[in-house]
Design goal:
alpha/beta, five-stranded parallel sheet, 10 helices, 15% strand
Length: 269
């Protein structure tokens, strides 16, 4: 490919959430790393601009005597996305994000997740919908971890959330996208960004999500639990970019018969 061909490629306008555009479509978590140094190295390698932080589990200033995550991933360099990991009802989730807003100087962009049980960490959708409604009315820009149910996703959109984030498979399972059909239905109807959240295990999972038309991918365990988290973070960066390029390019149609790569007509005998 020459320089003219490269310039002619369709340019990706970036990921826009709640009126802000980000160059990276990969969002990463900040937990499970060996230490804050590794957290920072992996985050930089991923190219991510949005970093999720579990307010109930990570110190971002609640304890002034303990190391703060913000020393490793400062808000001056990254968009800190507080989340409600560990919340099992709407009331706790709402309170957690109100606390995060105070700690982060009025942060409006947040990630809501209300879990159903400790074994599956599957979203509790009735409580999620209840919390989303309150938070949107309170002025938050809410990105929502949800089931891969297109009806529930539509209900969240109708409440005014900033993005829907259906799970690919269970949190931390690394099982990849188990139901691409449901995910495609959500993408097809969506009026807000759709990001796969939970279940990604390796780079091909991230690429598939993007090839399906997702606007982005959020992950933590797939990077932090890898043998080499920093290298895996870089692999995920490339996978998301490649998947997005493939989606923009448009894959060839699937066929039930062979088709030679080289035309037979005009061949030399």
């Amino acid at each position: 490919m020459n320089m003219n061909d490269t310039a002619a490629l369709q340019q990706d306008p970036g990921l826009t959430i709640a009126g802000t555009t980000y160059g990276s479509r990969l969002l990463v978590g900040s937990g499970k790393y060996r230490d804050l140094e590794q957290t920072r190295a992996a985050t930089i390698a991923s190219g991510a601009e949005i970093i999720t932080v579990a307010i109930r589990r990570v110190n971002i200033g609640q304890d002034p005597n303990a190391p703060s995550l913000l020393d490793a991933v400062p808000p001056s360099q990254f968009t800190i996305l507080p989340n409600t990991a560990g919340c099992y009802n709407a009331e706790d989730a709402i309170y957690t994000l109100q606390l995060a807003r105070e700690l982060l100087g009025g942060r409006q962009l947040v990630k809501l997740e209300v879990l159903g049980d400790e074994k599956t960490l599957f979203p509790n959708m009735p409580e999620t919908l209840k919390a989303a409604e309150v938070l949107v009315k309170d002025g938050f820009d809410v990105m929502v971890y949800c089931s891969d149910d297109p009806i529930q996703a539509r209900m969240l959109e109708d409440l005014g959330v900033a993005a829907v984030m259906p799970l690919a498979s269970l949190i931390g399972s690394g099982m990849g996208i188990l139901n691409p059909w449901n995910l495609s239905l959500i993408i097809e109807q969506a009026r807000v960004p759709v990001l796969v959240d939970a279940g990604v295990g390796t780079a091909s999972d991230a690429a598939i999500a993007m090839e399906l038309g997702c606007d982005g991918v959020l992950m933590n365990s797939a990077i932090a639990a890898a043998r080499d988290p920093v290298r895996m973070a870089h692999a995920m960066k490339l996978a998301v970019q490649a998947g997005r390029e493939a989606f923009l390019a448009g894959r060839m149609a699937r066929k039930f018969s062979a088709s030679p790569s080289s035309p037979m007509a005009g061949r030399v005998a």
